[in-house]
Amino acid sequence: MHNVKRTPQSKEAIEARKQKEQSKIREYLALTDDILNRKKSKDYSRESLNKTTQILQINPEFYTVWNYRRMILLNGIFPGCSASEINEQLSEDLSLTTTALKAHPKVYWIWNHRRWCLENVPTGPGDAGAPDHLGWRQDYWKKEMFVVEKMLDVDARNFLAWSYRRYVLSSMPIPRNPKTELTYTKRKIETNFSNFSAWHQRSKVLTSLWAKGELDERQSKEAEFDLIKNAMFTVPEDQSAWIYHRWLVGPGHDRDILEREIDTIKLLLEEQPDSKWCMESLVHYNMLLIRNHVSSVNTAELVQECRKLLGELRKVDSARRERYNELGILAPCLLSSLKATDPVQRKDLAQKRDTLADSAVSQGLTEREGRLLLFSDYYYPWERRAITVACSYRTGRKLGAFSTCIRQSCSRNCKQNSIAASVAAAAVLRNRNLGGLETREQVVRDSEHKTMEKGCAQ
Amino acid sequence: MSRLLVPLHVQSIQNLGKSQDELVYHLTAHLRMNAVYWGLTALCIMDHKDALDRQEMIDFVTSCWDDEAGGFGAHPDHDAHLLSTLSAIQILIIQDALDCVDVDRVVKFILSLQQPSGVFAGDRFGEIDTRFLFCAVNALSLLGRLSELDVEKTVGYIVQCRNFDGGFGSSIGAESHAAQVFVCVGALAILDRLDEVDVPTLSWWLAERQLPNGGLNGRPEKLEDVCYSFWVLSAMSILNKVHWIDAEKLTSFILSAQDTDNGGIADRPGDMPDVFHTLFGVAGLSILGYPGLKDLDPVYCMPADLIERMGLRKGWKNLERRTS
Ligand SMILES: [Zn+2]
Predict the structure, then answer these.
(1) Any idea where the domains of chain B sit in the sequence?
(2) DSSP label at B71?
(3) Which of A23, A268, B127, B323 would you call most buried, defined as having the most Cβ atoms within 10 angstroms of its Cβ?
(4) How far apart are the CA of A63 and the nearest CA of chain B, in angstroms?
(5) Which of B72, B77, B129, B175 to mutate to test the interface with A (most CBs of A within 10 A)?
(6) Which residue spans within chain B are E strands per DSSP?
(7) Given CA atoms A400, B197, B128, B99 in this order, what sign does their dihedral have?
(8) Tally of CB atoms within 10 A around A438
(9) CB neighbours of A12 closer than 8 A, spacing ≥ 6?
């Protein structure tokens, strides 16, 4: 139950309410029994259909009855109907769900029945080849957009309605211009910058338009930076904008954008010296600068700045102080490991493996630091996979599970994963050694053996 | 700080089955199987497993068998669905009574619901959701039949639901939501495929679910709710990040949502309690190391010692149990 206030009631009041409910309970149970018995005897009559309408109006969560209703329609009603009668019946079912959704906007079963109805709308009214051959369907889908927008006007964060919106957009017989969705999400965002559902939708639409080459990525990104800047400066405490901003910046390969955004945020921080999101984002973007542009930025200064900001963050956002502590350890570790393994110079993958393994376990980091470094987001995906393998091994206790993970990785991407396996093996050594169970060499040999077994060693 | 009112909560769970003189009891029949699982698991975590009659419970579960489909409905004569089928299996395993199920048929039912995309439908009517995918993976794992699942296909779908914030949605394209994060991360944990999680980004997103009042929300800029104590914390435990939020503040928030008169925990302070939030409140407290509670396995949301005995324990990490 959600959002139902508890009102203390006297024993007498409770008793009185229960008394009053007794006749309702009897009625409801009689109706339920009747319907479930009809269902058991496969009674697909109009009368049964009406009974299901009756009970679903009382309890739209009774999924078995929705199922039964569809069975009645498919087996009992539609076979004797013309296309236009089927169309009328479905229109009735749609209004049944519209009414139900107004009172219960978050009941999955109702949305679900709605989809079923739409998917069963017959062709017509025109015959095949006639211009209005898909007329009914088109009318419904147009109406659906209106319905879902009404729902989102009432609750702009209803995730069922947003999912339904995506479903409608992808199902319409005549697709809408995807760019109209940019207009819609912008309208939603400008009404309320906190509407992360709209930001999310926007990111999906943009990604898809960029992928299809229907929108210039560089140019439209700049427009997005303007939009988001407005949100950040208007409601700097609202995390929706900052999460979206992080997506726009991405992995940070573009140094100019990174530095420009850092400057913008610093400007805002001057206005809002306690802004948690300013500081948190600055730490993240500084780390991206170190990660991607180690040879062309002043790393010592950046690390120093991260440490200072993290110290502030521990104070202004103490609930998450442990995270800031860990990031604080990470920054200098990251720097030293990058210096040891400059990506520009790492041409040979085997060498990379060794260097990485070494930097993970033997560059004098404490166990905790090593763990943090490995868990950071400053490695490539395959490296992270290795780290996860290491993690599951370390905590999962079983060598068997470890081998399975390695085998699974091996089957997916040979060269990278043989390296991943070795890095993983090396990475877990610290722990193994602490337990005094196995030596580094043994684990590495084992992982490489497994790799060879799959014929994946390069 | 107030305490967890164990005897009162145990009593409120015992009373659930006795409220047939209330209309709401009958209006929620479609959730009965889940409710029994929620109540039983909450009792296990509070170390009162025997507060409900074992045989009566097993009889109820078997009475919900849908022989036509080969799965369990939520109530006698209700249609089989993955949600109720998982709950039924969880109950029977906790009660050590799996022998009263035709496991082969259940496995067949579950596998029949996988779609070409890799996701699962909840039943033959085809609604899809990563929740159902988790139900399937979880149930197959508990039944020791994971080897029959097409893991690549299943993981392939989950990966497509991953968003730029590190979280997961209910289907491809859907917004990240803490409950969907739990089901996707839980499924990946069971399948030993946590390598598909963007750990730093997701851990950051999860840590940001905590609000100044200590409670957790399920999405950015939404209200706190006790049930997210479980959805968020379970994922954090699997990623070994529970310490990234303020445990003390969250503990007080959960405790403040207790109904101190009649027992049970509500979604937030002052609201009506229910067994769903009672379980997820107690589960959250267990992950936070609240004294006197039993360990909860955050992947399966079942007693940890049981999962450990079955050899299914994954690499999660709850906070250490406090003594006071
Ligand atoms: Zn809730």
Answers:
(1) 6-309
(2) E
(3) B127
(4) 7
(5) B175
(6) 65-66, 71-72, 265-266, 273-274, 296-297, 302-303
(7) positive
(8) 14
(9) none
Given CATH 1.50.10.20, say whether it is the number of domain B6-309.
Answer: yes
d(CA A410, CA A414): 5
Cα separation, A312 vs A324, whole angstroms: 9
Q: How far are the Cα atoms of A109, A266, A369, A397, B135 from residue A73, in angstroms, in the given order?
A: 17, 63, 63, 55, 29
Q: Which residue has the tokens 């030993």?
A: B192
> Dihedral, CA atoms, A339, A342, A346, A352, nearest 10 degrees?
40
| Per-residue pLDDT reduced to its tens digit, A158-192 | 999 999 999 999 988 888 898 999 999 999 999 99
Total beta-carbon pairs less than 8 A apart between chain A and chain B = 176
Contact status, residue B221 vs residue B185, Cβ threshold 8 Å? no
3-state secondary structure of A71: helix
Structure tokens at A187: 């309208």
Q: Name residue, tokens 């219960």.
A: A104
Which pLDDT tens digit goes with each residue over A257-283? Answer: 999 999 999 999 999 999 999 999 999
Cα–Cα dist B73/A304, whole Å: 60
Q: Of B129, B245, B315, which is closest to A391 when you measure between CB atoms?
A: B315
ipTM comes to 0.96
Q: Phi-psi bin for B197: left (phi > 0), alpha (psi -120 to 50), beta? A: beta
Structure tokens at A354: 């060794």
Q: Which residues partner with B120 through β-bridges? A: B114
Q: What is the mean pLDDT of residues B239-260?
A: 96
Residue type, B111: L
Which chain B residues touch A59 with a CB distance below 8 Å?
27, 30
Comparing alpha-carbon positions, the chain B residue that sits nearest to A27 is B23
Pairing label, strands B296-297, B302-303: antiparallel
Distance CA B301, CA B141 (A): 13
Cα separation of B304 and B294, whole Å? 8
Long-range Cβ contact pairs of A56-61 (< 8 A, separation 24 or more): A56/A96, A56/A100, A57/A96, A57/A99, A57/A100, A58/A28, A58/A31, A58/B27, A59/A28, A59/B27, A59/B30, A60/A100, A60/A103, A60/A104, A60/A107, A60/A109, A60/A110, A61/A104, A61/A107, A61/A109, A61/B27, A61/B28, A61/B30, A61/B31
Tokens of A356: 């990485």
Tell me: pLDDT of A212 over 70: yes
Query: In this structure, what token pair is assigned to residue B37?
Result: 């699982």
Cβ neighbors of B183 (< 8 A, separation 6 or more) are B130, B131, B133, B134, B168
User: Structure tokens of B295?
Assistant: 């360990």
Residue B264: its pLDDT value, please? 97
Give the whole-angstrom CA distance, residue A150 versus residue A161.
Answer: 10
**Is the distance from CB of B217 to CB of B224 less than 8 angstroms?**
yes
The amino acid at residue A16 is A
Confidence of residue A350 (pLDDT cuts 50, 70, 90): very low
Share of chain B above pLDDT 90, in %: 93
Q: Is the pLDDT of residue A442 over 80?
A: no
Per-residue pLDDT, B72: 98
Which candidate from A1, A62, A395 shows the least CB-CB separation from B317? A395
3-state secondary structure of A360: helix
Distance CA B196, CA A414 (A): 17
Q: Which residue has the tokens 């010592």?
A: A300
Q: What chain B residue is nearest to A205 in terms of C-alpha separation?
A: B173
Selection from A398, A386, A379 nearest residue A451 by Cα: A386
Residue B176 in this model has a pLDDT that exceeds 90: yes
> Under the phi-then-psi rule, with left for phi > 0, alpha for psi from -120 to 50, and beta for the rest, what region is B215?
beta
Q: What tokens appear for B86 in the block?
A: 């998982």
Cis preceding linkage at B298, omega within 30: no
Residue pair B236/B244 in contact (Cβ under 8 Å)? The answer is yes
